[in-house]
Write a structure and sequence with these properties.
Elements: E1 6-10, E2 17-21, E3 27-30, H1 33-39, E4 43-49, E5 53-56, E6 61-65, E7 70-75, E8 81-86, E9 91-95, E10 107-111
Parallel strand pairs: 3-10
Antiparallel strand pairs: 1-2, 2-5, 3-4, 4-9, 6-7, 7-8, 8-9
Length: about 140
């Protein structure tokens, strides 16, 4: 049976809202230095097919080109980190914390653990990878 679940979310101030339809990937927690600097800890995100997300308030969405192949979307008003998008992928990553509860999501793995901050430990038992995990497209 296909997953037709509708999930909603938003930035902190509500200027940018989104709605996803259908299956989401399990959450991947990225500990690279870019993600840590943007969020203050790590970037926990799922993803959804581009044609299964609707974004309202796109005028308030700012895109930062973090590398030659990827960009990060955040609210221009409140600064909430919301999205990560690889130019060669038909999916968009959405920060798990931006979804309205209940999300039904859980962290499945941790990537770029070799680059994680020195002020915390990863203790949830999910697999840890020094760089990326199989099947996860990243901007290396």
């Amino acid at each position: 049976m296909p997953d037709t679940q509708i999930r909603t979310g938003r930035c902190n101030c509500g200027a940018v809202r989104f709605r996803t339809r259908g299956p989401l990937r399990e959450v991947v927690a990225c500990h690279c230095s870019q993600c840590r600097r943007q969020t203050g800890l790590y970037y926990a995100a799922t993803n959804v097919a581009d044609d299964h997300i609707e974004i309202e308030g796109a005028a308030g969405l700012t895109w930062y080109h973090a590398s030659e192949v990827a960009r990060r979307g955040f609210c221009a008003y409140c600064g909430s980190a919301l999205f990560w998008k690889h130019r060669d992928d038909a999916h968009i990553s959405v920060l798990a914390g931006a979804f309205d509860p209940p999300t039904g999501l859980h962290i499945a793995s941790h990537i770029f653990c070799a680059d994680k901050g020195d002020f915390y430990e990863i203790t949830d038992g999910a697999p840890q990878y020094d760089r990326s995990s199989p099947g996860v497209l990243v901007a290396e």
